Amino acid sequence: MTVLMPFLSFLVAMSLSNVRMGKVLAVFFASLSFVSAILCFEAIWNQAPLHGTIQWFSIGTITVNAGLLLNNLSVVMLLLVSFIALLVHIYSLKYMEGDAGIQRYWGYLGLFCFAMLGLVVVDNLLLMYVCWELVGFASYLLIGFWFTRPAAVQANKKAFIINRIGDIGFLIGIMIMLCQFRTLDLSLLFGEGGYLSVAQIRDGQWIFGNASMDAVWLTIAGIAFFMGAVAKSAQFPLQGWLPDAMEGPTAVSSLIHAATMVAAGVFLLLRVQPVFNDTVLLIITCVGAFTAFMAGTTALLQNDIKRILAFSTISQLGYMIMAMGIGAASPAIFHLITHAFFKCLLFLCAGAVIHEMAHVREEKGADFDPQDIRLMGGLRKKMPVTFVAMLLASLALAGLPFSSGYLSKDAILVEAFQWAGVHGGLAHVIPYVALATSWITAFYIARLIFSVFFGKLRLEEVIGTKAHIHEAPAAMRYVLLILPVFCLFPVFSVNPFNASHSWVMSILPLHLAHEEGLSHLIIPVVVNMGSLALIFIAWKRYAMTNAVSVAEGKNKGLRGFIFYQWRINDLYAMVVKLVLLLSGLLSVIDRKVVDGLVDGVGSLSRSLSHVAAWFDKHIVDGLINGFAWISSQLARFFRHFQSGKLQHYFVSMLLFILIFFIYKLYSGTI
Question: Half-sphere exposure of residue 591, counting CA atoms within 13 Å on the CB side?
Answer without folding.
Answer: 5
